[in-house]
Amino acid sequence: MCHFKTILLLVFSLTLSVSAISQGNNYVQNYKKFEGLALTPPMGWNSWNKFACNVDEKMIREIADAMVATGMKDAGYTYINIDDCWHGDRDSLGFIHEDPKRFPSGMKALADYIHAKGLKFGIYSDAGSQTCGGRPGSRGYEFQDAKTYASWDVDYVKYDWCNTEGLKAEGAYKTFTAAIRQAGRPMVLSICEWGTDKPWTWGQSVGHLWRTTGDIFNCFDCVEDHGTWKSWGVMKIADKQEGLRQYAGPGHWNDPDMLEVGNGMVVNEDRAHFSIWTMLAAPLIAGNDLRKMSKETVQVLTNKEVIAVNQDKLGIQGFRHSSKDGIETWLKPLSNGNWAICFLNRSEQPQTVEFKWKDNPITDDLSKMELNTNKVTYKVRNLWTKKDVGTTKKDFKTVIPKHDVTMLLLTK
Question: What is the DSSP letter of 27?
């Protein structure tokens, strides 16, 4: 009898051990993002820059309509991303719901509408207890929120960093990556941590893009001081990308924030802004009202030849090669041995640019690619005038208006 009891106890303890081991395995998290997404910089639209908290389903549907009607979808824009303030309350089980007044049809219906147009749907949350706009954040609800977004067929999540008292950025973002993994739907994760904790050093396996700075605003070369934080003009943001290019590549991008094209700068400043973002291999996320664009704004945002530089399959971030008298020369190595070169006039008056190709052999230390016109002759095309302008056998000379660019494609 005692022998039988001993056997029973052994069986029982073995069962508990096996149960504990298997249960323990259930708690092992996968902190790696979904691969195969954002192999070129994401292109789309986000509501924040123009509309801030004034979002609702009617406007979002109209923006999706406009993305198709204006030719932006044909130019490569894919994501329709709702930023902050879409949130309603959490229910008794903790699941988040959309604001019923702003989104009466529900997020799933809105996602279906966007998907039916061949576009993708993005949403916003925050690693803290509240979003920057004071709505419910995801802290403590990460796995529920990811499951909810998956049920809504969300394709892209921008995850902000307000009200994150005591949290460490890398750990917080890994938690949300694990939540997306467990939810089972591949979603692009946009790490919006403002560059404070150097996300480029840890974000490559966690997210698909990471903000490198604080917020952009629609000014060419200035700073807006809010007391406890600052907004940065376009050129100030571009300056802050120095030293980061080695962290960018297919599936993992430095994000200098969303575009301000069409939000109040003059057209040459918009063109310069857009050109530098393409040279930086930056995500091209428009932030204007697509329903009310001037012809010039459409021309900037839908220039397919300029966009092709941004979307080059090598995914090499460009770099500032030189700066003199307000003229900056930017270069970006491209596939097939081609190059993009952008001359930027940051000064307050028109400037004459003369570039002697044969006197300027360039080797990019990062990609090991060489631009040497003593060895190779390139065809030269102006990407904004859309005209061929000879070859590198002849020196290049042009006048660039203030706050404007000339952008060239060099093809072998």
Answer: T
389: β partners: none
**180 backbone dihedrals φ, ψ, rounded to 5°:** -65, -45
Q: Which of 26-30, 174-178, 287-291, 355-359 has the lowest mean pLDDT?
A: 26-30
Residues labelled as active-site residues: 160, 215
**Dist CA 212 CA 223 (whole Å):** 16
Percent residues over pLDDT 90 in the chain: 92
pLDDT at 197 over 70: yes
Closest CA to 187 of 61, 281, 81, 75: 81
pLDDT of residue 25: 58
Confidence at 281, pLDDT banded by 50, 70, 90: very high
How many Cβ atoms from other residues are within 10 Å of residue 311's Cβ? 17
CATH number of 319-411: 2.60.40.1180
In the predicted structure, residue 12 carries a pLDDT above the cut 70: no
pLDDT in tens, 209-253: 999 999 999 999 999 999 998 999 999 999 999 999 999 999 999
Angle, alpha carbons 66-304-220 (nearest 5°): 80
Structure tokens given for 88:
């309603």
| Angstrom distance (rounded) from CA 74 to CA 117 | 12
Q: Break the chain into its structural domains and give their ranges.
A: 43-310, 319-411
Residue 404 contacts residue 267 (beta carbons within 8 Å): no
- Sequential DSSP letters for 287-325: -S-GGG--HHHHHHHT-HHHHHHHT-TT----EEEEEET
CB atoms within 10 A of CB 343: 21
How far apart (Å, rounded) are the C-alpha atoms in residues 172 and 118? Answer: 32
Partners of 408 in the β-ladder: 341, 382
* Contact between 389 and 380 (Cβ < 8 Å): yes
Return all residues near 19 (Cβ < 8 A) that are at least 6 apart.
none
43-310 placed in CATH 3.30.43.10: no
Residues in the chain: 412
